[in-house]
Amino acid sequence: MIFFTRSKNLQDADDHILLNSYRETGDLSVLGQLFEKQMPLIYGVCFKYLKDEDLAKDAVMGIFEELVGKAKQHDIKQFRSWLYVVSRNYCLMQLRSAKKMETVNLDDFMEFTPVLHPDTDNREAAMKALELCMEKLPANQKQSIHLFYFNEQCYKEIANSTGFSLNDVKSYIQNGKRNLKICLERNSA
Questions:
Q1: Residue 27 sits in which domain range?
Q2: What is the pLDDT of residue 26?
Q3: In a shared domain, residues 18 and 92
Q4: pLDDT of the chain, 189 residues: tens digit per residue
Q5: The pLDDT of residue 59
Q6: Residues 6+ away with beta carbon under 8 Å from 27
Q7: Cβ–Cβ contacts within 10 Å for residue 16, how many?
Q8: Would the CA dihedral through 83, 85, 88, 89 be positive or negative?
Q9: Which of 100, 120, 136 is a domain's end point?
Q10: Domain boundary residue among 39, 72, 100?
């Protein structure tokens, strides 16, 4: 039992030395050595959550890319435990992003438009009313709504392309939808 504990302590010490070396030099090969030792753990976590070999392999590479910056930013006491949490969180974000990537039908977006009917004239009138109301939105709401519904981007993609925080994007879309609904109801009355 003592041998196992010492071996584990030596393993942790080696990880700590490699981590400090990477932080001091920025040498990716050192980080690669540290990462390679943990790849079976990382792949196992990724496969457990993503349930697909290819997605798990892609996630392992994505985690390494994140690790390049995060390893310098965080105060890491137990690298293996910390990396497990980073890997798990990465996979959960991938799963959430996949749910957000579901396509959105424009008719679903315009569900609150009472003038929408199968006939072409009413559909054109509804689209024109929507365009007019979109122009009245604040710029951040208009941009977020456009990217989400018309470009079919997920929240994370919108945040990355606009520089808005993830919470701001969610808020802009929610408030924008509410403002569009109010505007469309006013114009149809």
A1: 7-100
A2: 87
A3: yes
A4: 334 443 455 456 588 888 888 888 888 988 899 999 999 999 999 999 999 999 999 999 999 999 988 888 888 888 888 999 999 999 998 888 766 544 444 444 555 444 444 444 566 777 788 888 888 999 999 999 888 887 788 888 899 999 999 888 888 888 888 888 888 888 765
A5: 93
A6: 21
A7: 15
A8: negative
A9: 100
A10: 100
Query: Same domain for 60 and 89?
Result: yes
CATH number, position 163? 1.10.10.10
Residues 17 and 58 in one domain: yes
| Number of compact structural domains in the chain | 2
User: What is the four-CA torsion angle of 165, 168, 173, 174, rounded to 10 degrees?
Assistant: 140
Compute the distance between CA of residue 100 and CA of residue 157 in angstroms, rounded to an integer.
10
Residue 150 lies in a domain: yes
Q: Are residues 151 and 171 in the same domain?
A: yes
State both tokens at 185.
């109801």
Alpha carbon separation from 102 to 53, 56, 156, 157 (Å, rounded) = 22, 20, 13, 13
Looking up tokens 């024109």 gives 128
Q: What's the confidence (pLDDT) of residue 3? A: 41
Picking from 12, 37, 31, the residue whose alpha carbon sits closest to that of residue 71 is 31
- Structure token digits, residue 99: 């749910």
